TrEMBL record:
Lineage: Bacteria, Pseudomonadati, Pseudomonadota, Alphaproteobacteria, Hyphomicrobiales
Pfam families on file: Methyltransf_21 (PF05050)
Species, as recorded: Rhizobium loti
Domain of life of the source: Bacteria
PANTHER family: METHYLTRANSFERASE, FKBM FAMILY PROTEIN, SLL1173 PROTEIN
The protein's name in its UniProt record: Uncharacterized protein
């Protein structure tokens, strides 16, 4: 286990991971992440889904979150998540499970070169990689079983399976109205999950009154078909298929 030290504003953050891992060696807060973390309300309740080594979880805790739930299905990466939590003395409730559209188990590929490229595997996933089984629950089931009555913010970054997490949260999100920072990765949606990226964008626009892309470091509302088409174009042509979307029930001021 190795440690890296980064800054979030004036706060010191320790990250734990495997030296040589592409994500661990290069992870830093980007503009969408920084925007979302600075927008957290006081004593927020936060869900970090696809927590990886725990940067979102510990930064949220350092920002004053009252409760942080972190989910990471990869057992090896989960151990680094626990190390990161301990190194920052952060109050994080970490769970070694995946969240998806149903409860059960699913195959999982652990990428040896980059923890950020590990992903769930279905019969439609391209590539023939060694896998192991991981336990999966749903967002709604977890919220019910833990009697959670407030959620302020959710981060989802699960390499193409974001839509499954949202399907599993279809009761909770409209009821508790959290904000959401979600990775929109057209490549992983097509290659790993075999879905049209427009399906995820459509679901987000149907669920949240306000969906923002980031352009020149600032949130820009996706407010109609032309704006949606422009976002899809830019995601595929100029963003390397990877963007973050910030979704809310109240407008960003």
């Amino acid at each position: 286990m190795h440690k890296r030290y980064i800054k979030f504003g004036e706060k010191d953050v320790t990250l734990c991971g495997k030296k040589g891992d592409i994500y661990f060696d290069n992870a830093v807060p980007d503009e969408p992440f920084t925007f979302a973390m600075t927008a957290l309300p006081n004593a927020a309740v936060v869900f970090d889904i696809g927590s990886n080594i725990g940067m979102t979880a510990v930064v949220a805790a350092k920002q004053g979150a009252a409760k942080v739930y972190a989910f990471e299905p990869d057992p090896n990466v989960f151990s680094f998540l626990l190390d990161t939590v301990k190194a920052n003395a952060a109050l994080v409730d970490a769970h070694n499970i995946a969240l998806g559209s149903k409860e059960g188990t699913l195959s999982f590929f652990s990428n040896p070169d980059s923890a950020s490229a590990s992903h769930l595997v279905t019969e439609n996933t391209l590539g023939h990689s060694p896998t192991h089984r991981v336990r999966m629950s749903t967002f709604d089931a977890f919220v019910t079983s833990h009697q959670i009555h407030r959620i302020d913010f959710i981060k989802i970054d699960v390499e193409g399976f974001e839509i499954d997490v949202l399907w599993g949260a279809r009761e909770t999100i409209p009821r508790l109205k959290p904000s959401l920072l979600i990775e929109f990765n057209a490549f992983t949606m097509v290659g790993f999950r075999d879905i049209n990226p427009r399906d995820l964008l459509r679901l987000l626009l149907e669920t949240f009154p306000y969906v923002y892309r980031f352009k020149d470091g600032k949130p820009q509302l996706i407010d109609g078909d032309d704006a949606a088409l422009g976002f899809i174009h830019d995601n595929l042509v100029s963003a390397g298929c990877v963007d973050d979307l910030y979704c809310t029930f109240q407008p960003v001021l």
